[in-house]
Write a structure and sequence with these properties.
mainly beta; 11 strands; single chain; 4-stranded antiparallel sheet
Length: 116
């Protein structure tokens, strides 16, 4: 499975940005896709995940501001970022995992910088 992320950039605090990640390769129906981020000097953390059935889970810090969705026909996961804050700055990585497997695939990362 290959993952390619798009959409990072510079955004002002309070603004919006949408990230996209396209998955290609051997993609089976039951899977998780998600977004993780790594801020400078910090460990990578989970931002949001979504199952192939549409179930979602969010980090407390992003609830109500960031929304994860997916298009199973296009094998694409999105992260809509609204009301962004300086602490949302970081490299955002797309993640893919099959249900029942512990192996994870990662995209190349896309940088989001929030200016105050």
């Amino acid at each position: 499975v290959q993952l390619q992320a798009f959409g990072g950039g510079l955004v002002q605090a309070g603004g919006s940005l949408r990230l996209s990640c396209v998955a290609s390769g051997s993609i089976f129906r039951s899977n998780f896709m998600g977004w993780y981020r790594q801020a400078p000097g910090k460990q990578r953390e989970q931002v949001a995940i979504i199952t192939s059935g549409g179930g979602t889970n969010y980090a407390d810090s992003v609830k109500g501001r960031l929304t994860i969705t997916r298009d199973n026909v296009k094998n694409t996961v999105y992260l809509q970022m609204n009301s962004v804050k300086a602490e949302d700055t970081g490299v955002y990585y797309c993640n893919f995992r099959l249900v029942g497997s512990s192996y994870e695939y990662w995209g190349q990362g896309t940088l989001v910088t929030v200016s105050s």
